Structure formats: structure tokens, C-alpha cells
Amino acid sequence: MSSSGAYHQPNPPDSPVDDPDSDLELDLQELDPITTSDSKPHNSSSRNHQNTREERRGPHIPLRNLRMGGLRNIGRNRGYGDLGRNRDADNDEDRQGLLNDDHGGDGMARTSGGSSNAADDDAPLLSGNGSGSSSSRRRRRSSFNKVTNVGSQLRLPSFLSGNKNTTQPVEDDGDEQEEDHDPASSRTVAVGATQTSRFPPNAVSNAKYTPISFLPRTLYNEFSFFFNMYFLLVALSQAIPPLRIGYLSTYIVPLVFVLAITLGKEAFDDIARRRRDAEANSEGYTVLCFDKPSASDAARYRAKKNLKSKGTSKKRRSLVEPDRLSDILEEEESAESQGRDAPTSTVREVIRKSRDLKVGDVLKLGKDQRVPADVVILKSTSNDSASAVSPEPVVTPSAVATESLLVDTVSDPPIDVSSSTITEAHQSTSELGNTPSADASGAGETFIRTDQLDGETDWKLRLGSPLTQSLETSEFVRLRVVAGKPDKKVNEFIGTVELLPKGATGYDPHVPKGKGKAVAPDEEHGGESAPLTIDNTAWANTVLASNATTLAVIVYTGPQTRSSLSTSPSRSKTGLLEFEINSLTKILCALTLTLSIVLVALEGFEHVEGVKWYVKIMRFLVLFSTIVPISLRVNLDMGKSVYSWFIQKDPGIEGAVVRTSTIPEELGRIEYLLSDKTGTLTQNEMEMKKIHVGTVSYANEAMDEVATYVRQGFSIPASTDGNHSATLVTPSSVALTTTTATRTRREIGSRVRDVVLALALCHNVTPTVEEENGHNITSYQASSPDEIAIVKWTEAVGLRLVHRDRKGMLLQSVDTGRSVVRVRILEVFPFTSEGKRMGIIVQFMDGTETASGRLDAGEIWFYQKGADTVMTSIVASNDWLDEETANMAREGLRTLVVGRKRLSVQNYQDFTYSYKEASVSINNRDAGMARVVSHYLEKDLELLGVTGVEDKLQRDVKPSLELLRNAGIKIWMLTGDKVETARCVAVSAKLVARGQYIHTIAKLKRKDNAQDHLDFLRSKTDACLLIDVWHGRNSYKRSAKLAQFVIHRGLIISVCQTMYSIAIKFEPEGLYKDWLLVGYATVYTMAPVFSLVLDKDVDENLANLYPELYKELTSGSSLSYRTFFVWVFVSIYQGGMIQGLSQLLTEVDSPRMVAVSFTVLVLNELTMVAFEITTWHPIMIISLIGTLVLYLGSIPFLGGYFDLAFIVTW
Known about the structure:
Radius of gyration: 43 Å
Largest sheet: 9 strands, antiparallel
Helix content: 25-40%
Structural class: alpha+beta
Distance between the termini: 143 Å
Number of strands: 26
CATH topology of the domain at 574-659 and 1021-1208: Calcium-transporting ATPase, transmembrane domain
Low-confidence stretches: 1-184, 312-322, 385-442, 507-525, 719-725, 735-739, 1005-1023
């Protein structure tokens, strides 16, 4: 017998189970490493001395130490080969399962023996202080004589239970400290747990103001206009006694009234925004909550495992001779499996409002549900499949009967039965079932709509990470998502997802730092990581489009989401009309100052005792303050609200929403219309029209010849043994089965087959089957309509895509209904706006391989398609590509160049190694991955062909654009297509006339943000015509007329005041004082003047029939300096006549003159309104008659200003 520390048996058995004496050969190093740590030889006497001990075995001796002896020590395999080392690899799991069942997996640090480390396999035997006294070691050694009875005396609970007071966790100096992540930088998100950093709440806020900032901001905006500031100064001047003309309230109240109306309108709009925000913030979402498994759950799980292990043990003992060590092996392996397989958490679902969601929450989202925050997709399962995503584990009630323990209360991995289908009806699915992850439910694919985020109507494919897609939901708490700092780029994302091993403790706010051990991802078995890209995300305000249940973790909330960061702060919009009115009010103010100075000058600047000349000027400025109309802004603001209401209620454009009601009149003065091509001028519904394969081009009826080549190239003879997958088509198989064809036709047929096969494989399209009226209808889902059009075309010519998941694709012959092509998807390179191309690496299966996971089991090909601008330098040199793409572009077709390249196994392995290294890098990941792809794949591709896809024009887009062009609007079209394609679409859409010069701006490098005044019209092209020509015209014309009438109303009363001041020898005394002056600007004239917002200068049909009428609006002729001075002279004439005649017919200083002058002034204003109306509206008539009746009825109450006795005699 060897005297070394390791025991070596001369003739080791094949396994410990087959060795009947293996339980008698024990190693003292395993029983007490402390007493044997001096590395002295162990002889037989020492073991006999231990055998004479009569003390009973302590209850905490690790079972594996008794059974396997030195197998646990590294390098001491006792002749069992790798078995010992494999056992040693599970040291940490043994520790966690045996020592820390009640501590959540927080175990002690352990090493491979040695006297310097007391925290070894015998750690449970140490005293509470960890000193390891000699008496305790003697008790441990004395238990050896009872080892023969261990199989009958030990039960599993005795090994899992332990005296909690006998162990003290040993602090590990190497523990990583919790890192506080700055929310403004990169972050680590603990899935389903409380975060170490604080992040903003997930509250949506599109409001322009806050309760604190409302008054300061609105008042600043209002007083930034000159006339509001002017009236504020006039009102403040009345607080100075020498400048006081009348009551202070008569000047303060109008200003407050105007500001109240304006502020009320702003508040109303902001409240509407807040109401919409409240609806979004109150929307309920299903959140998965992860709880620690309770004691009853663990007991039921252990009981279930015991039943399974006992059943297995009984079955084994019935086949082989009884062996106590075998029983121990089964029980110990059962205990270990409980530690490894037991669920980390239990899952329950709760409903939370959107504003209560936090970073780290796991959402359960369904079809047509809005994504409330920026999320990373963890798992997605189609609802059409048999297995749906549901929280695991499902824990049964505690009062369950004993027989229920036979049912596994924890969801086991689903069994893929697709490969066992043998019927012809399910042949396609069964064939693909041999490929990895053939189950469609495990594909992790879902589609989202991003039209509310970036305006694009295409569905975009999103995927769950392979690391999380196959993970049980109860294990999500082991995930950590590393994401970059919040960014506004909606098409970029770089991150990493890490899977911590079982037993690793993440951050727990209830446990002080340093009390638990957080295990790094690669520290134990089970630690893994995978890269995250934009394909694994769904940003806030996107909508799930596919019929799938998606589990996603929140990484950004509230103001840190992409949608919030990409939205510029709300600002007050000011139209051109307001700037023009502001300049006119400055002229009126200058006129007021000039008139005041002239009147004082006419008096001769005579010094009057107690009155200075400059005081007179100031008093005249106050008297003539009505020249600058204080009610102008409030009338215009209320008019804009009316215009917005008309737009939203127009039955011709149902669903239109006016998001900014401050500039509706700007729709009547549009000079430039900026339009995208795809989805705006066109329907974004593609149709394959043409294909060129180098020597011949196919289009229209010639596609039948392509179908013939495909039918011949993908025909598979029927198998004699009924195995339809025995022979599948690969690129290297026979091109054509026709032997009578000429060499030229065989070459053309081979080219056609290759390009059709490439188009059928190089895409991101997923087929879905939906039942309608009892029939199964196959539809295609993809992020690009181009790809859907191409896949539909391949189906039309004879090659149908019947199944696709993340790991494979299956193509079927339309003619025979047989599966002809089956591939494994090795890598996919999605399309990006920067790269302008997409590619895929596939491995073809010929139906004869035995191991589908082997790289040498089939041909490996790289396919790529993209824009000719980038593919020209990637494909091999040729002499026809540029010419053919230009020809197709001139026909208005969108061109794609298709190429391929065959890869050897070594080439693919070299690429995979470099690509994976680049994919896990946080810095410059995209650039690094692009460099690897360019270096290994994108060189000298075989050019297969060029496709031409047509995008149909929108309905009525031709007459709409032609009418807008005739209206004088300059239209700019933006597109990413070739210049030739853009020119063709511009001509066919009537954007330009035939023969007209087209200004082309290409190859711009600078990105400018264009303000879209018509963002609510994005979905309807014909609505743009209606609003520009009709509502825009009305808004501008009405606002111009309303502004001029308000200015006229203020000017005419100032002329009357001037005439009166001259008559009383240039004294600054008021003609109409106090509330008489206020009433004239409000109740006596406001309703008739404001009713002009209902006027129409032309009929709607006439405006649409003659779009040239719109040209006068763009010139601003309705409100200009010319029209302004016309109204000034009209006001001077009317005011001079009214006041002059009143003063001639009555006494100047008598109340009779005031009564006559004021009454004629009101009647003149009502008459002017009636004469200016073009199209009468019932409200106009009511306002005119009602105002007249109101004035007549208020005369008896104006006795302080009028001579009532004189009025009665009229």
C-alpha cells in the first residue's frame, strides 16, 4: 500500500459503483484535513487506531467525504481517471448545497486543502470561533467506525440541516465591492432586483410648463411683445398722480383681462398635454416580481426529487446487486441536483402603472401594447405556438395531497416534439426539427412598430438574446445587463448581458455590504455573457406588432429614454404674422409719440403754473394709448383657437390633431414643402418587377421562364424509402435535371437558380400562418418591405419560405410541395443605414448528415445584398453592374445587388473567433465588428444578379402635388435612393413638370434638423392639399382682417380724442373716460369684430379649382404696410367726421356731445363690420344685432357720462 497521501489501488475498477470495497478505503485527509495537513505518510496503524474509537459520528460530516475519500482532492483520482477531477470541479456546488441551504447560497471561501485554510470541506465541524479544537477533531475522527451503517442511518434532510451556530462565514478579501454607477454614464442593471443607483421615474411629461414656471415663462413671453410692454408702462403711469387721467382700474383691468385670456389659453393647451401624459402614465403593465422560494416550496421540491431518486435507485437495485455505496451515490447526487436545479426564485405577476415602473423591472408585453420605457428583450414566445411564456416555477398550494408530489412543481425544459412528426402534413416542420432550436416558440423573435418614434411605418425585427431566450423565467434574477449611458441615437445600442452562477449574491439593500459574496460571471460554472445590440431592444413609445408574449427588462426610464432625449424642449412658436403685427404696433407707438409732441408744440410750449410741458406729453401719451390696441393679441389668440378647432372638426381630414395652435395661419403662407419619398409620396408597398443575372434580364411575362428554371433546378426525385429529406438541394448540387438543354441555357439556368436561392435565403423575413375562414394563410413579417417583396417573388417563381427561426430556414418547392433546401443560420448581419447592405452565413444540409451541429456536415456560404454604391467594391470585377443598375433606376426601380462567397470550415472558424471578440467589446463595437466582416467576408464576392423593386405611388398623389405646384409651393423630396430613381419618381408623381429643370442636391454630409409644421399630416398625402389650400388660406385671411379691424378701432377713437383736444386748446383731457373707454373696446365692439373669424373670401371648391389663388397669400399682401396705411387714412377720415360733426352740432364741453359722438362711433364700427363680411354666417348676424341691443339697453346706466334727458328726446 502506498504511503503517500493519495491512495492508489493496483487494479482500479471501472467505476466506484462496481467496486464493492470502495466504501472501506477511506482517506483521512478527507475526514480531517487539519490533522493530516503535515503531509506525513498515512499508514495502516493510524487507520486502525481510528477504527477503535467508539464515539458516534458527528451529524455534519460531508457525505461525499465518507464515500469517495480522496476523490475530492485535485489530482487524487484513485484510479478513476477523470472522475475525481470532475467531482472536484463541483466543490463549490457541494458546499452551497450541503452547508448553506438556509443562507441563500452564501457560502465560505474554500481551497483545495492545506493547514493554513480552515474553511475546507470540514468547515461545518469547526467550532463557532473557527479555531478547530482537538476535541472536535477527535470526535470527527472517531466517527469512522460507524461508516458501514451510513447507508441505512443517513437520510437526506440530515445532511442538508445543520447547526447554524457552528459556522461562521469567512470574509473574502477578494470580494468585489458594490460599484455605484453614475446614471449619466454606463450602468449595470440587476434584473428583477433593487438597483444600487437611483434613476429617474418613468413619468412621461410633454407639458411645456410646470406649476412654478408657468407664470414666469408665460409673462416673459407676453411682455416680450412690444405693445404688451407698452400697455404695462401706461398702466403703471396711472400710479403717478400728475399723469393720472382716470381711474387706475380702467387701465389695469384691460391689461389683466388680455393677459388672463392669453394665459388661460396656454394653460388650457398645457392641461390637455398633461391629460394625455396622465393617460400614458396611468396605463397598466404586467410586471414580474421575483421572490425567494419559501421553506414549503423547497420542501415540496426536495420531496419530489426524493421520489424520483428513490424510484431510480430501486430500479437500479433490481438490475444489479445491492450496494450501499450506490445508494449513497444516488442520494448525494440527488442532493447536489437540488442545489443546482432548484429554482432561484418564484415568480408572480403584478399590475403597475407606467409611472411606477423602475429600472430593472421585468415587463410582460403583448401584441399592440405600447412599450412604456426603453427595454432589453429577454425572451419572446409566439402565442401561436404550444408553449407560451409564463412565469416559472408554478408552485402548488401547500395543502396539496401527498400524491401531488409525483407532479413536478417546477417547469422542466420543454420537449421538442417537432422532430418526431412523421406524417407528410408535418414533414417540413419535422425536417427542420433536426436543426438546433427548431421550435418556433424558442426563436425569440418579435416585431415592433416605430412610427411614433421615428416616423417609419416599417415593422422592425427584434430578438431576445440567445443567453436569455433559453433561460427559465425564475432564473432571470441571475442576469445583469450592462448598458451604455443614455443616448438619443435611436438606431444604436451597445451592451452586454451576464448570467451569474447559481448561489452568487447580487446587490440586496437589506444585507450590509461585505456580508455576502458576489461571484463573478466566470468564477464558477454557469457564469456566461453575451453581447447586446439594437436588435435586442425596444424603445419607449414603440408598439409590439407581432402576436407574441415578450419579457423585457427596463434599462432607461423617463427623461433618459431615447424618445425623450431625441425630443427637443418645448418652445413657444411665433408665426410670421405676429412679427408683422409687432412691427406695425411700433409704427403706431411712434405715431402716438409724434401726435403728443405736435399737440404740445401747437400750444407753444407755454409754461403753465404747476404743469410742465413734458408732463403734458406724458399725459397725451396716456390719452392716445388706444392707438396701440391692447385687445389685439387676445383677439388673435382666440381666433387661432377657432382655426385649430375647424381643422380638427373638418370631416375631410378625420383624425387630424393640432398639436400647436399658435401658428395655424402659417399654413396659408407656405412656400416650401419638404417631403420624404418612401412612405409619403409612395405607399411603401414593394413589388418585384425586374431581375438581371448578367447576360439576360427578366421582367413581366419573362418571369414564367424564371419559374421554369426554378422548377427544374429544385426538382428532387422521390425517395424510395419514403424519407423526403434524404436529398436536399445545395449550391454545389446539379443545376438542372434537363439533359437536352444547350450549354448556354444550362449556364443561364444555373445563374437563375443561384440568384433565386440567394434571394430566398438572404433576408430577415419570418413566415407566419394565420387561419382565416378555415384556411391557413401564410403571411410574411419583416422590417423592410423590400425583403417581403423579394420573398413573395421567390414564392411566385417556385421557391417558398415555409419556416424560419434563429437557427435555421426551410425552403419548399411550390410545384411539388417537398422541402428542397434546409440550412442552419450561422450568422446574420442586419441592414443598417450606414452600411446599406445585409448578409447571412448559412450551412446547407443535404439530408444525410448525422450530426447537424458539425461545421463539416455541409457547405458554408456567405450571401449578401445591398445598394450598388457599396456592393460595387465588394463583388468581383465585372463589366455590366453599373450600366444595369442605372437602367433600372431610370425606370424608377429600387435596385439591390446580390452576391455570394463560399467559406471553408477554417475560414469560418477564423472569422467567428475574431467576430466574437469584437462583439463583446464595449468600446467601438460596431466599428470593430464591421472591420472583421470586411476583412474575412466582403472581398471578391461572386456577383449573382441585380433586382429591381417598384414602390407604388400613394393614391391621388399626382393631382395633389400638381395642384400644390400650381399654387406656387416649391416641393423638395428627400430620398436615399439613387439620383436616377428619385428623378423618375419626381416626374411620375407630378412633383415636377415634364421638361422642367430638376435641382438635385446629393451627397450631403451635414445633418440638419428640419422643423415639421405638418407632422400630424404624415399619414395622409391628400390632407396636405386640403389644409394648405383651404384651411391655411382661411386662417391667414381671417387673421389679417381681424388685426386690421382692431387697429382701426383703436385709431378712430384716438382721432376723436385729438379733435377734442384741439377744441379745448390742447389740454390733455380725456374725451371718453373710465369705463366708457373700456366698454368700447370690449362689450360694444368685440363680438362683431371677432365674428370676422367665420368669414370666407372664396368658396372651398373654387379654392381647390384655382390653386393660383394661393400665390397671393405667400406674398403677404393681405396684411402689409400698404394695407396698414390705407386703414390709417380711413380711420383718420371717419374719426374726424364723427368728432367734427358732433362738436359742430352740440356744445364741446357738454355731455350731449359725448353721447352723440360715442353713439355714432359704436354704430360706425358695427356698420364697417357688416360691409367687410363676404360670406354671412348666423353667428355674425347674432353678434351684430345682439351688440346693438346691448348698447341701447346699457344707455340708462351711463348717466354719469351721457345726458340721458337729451337722449330721451331723440
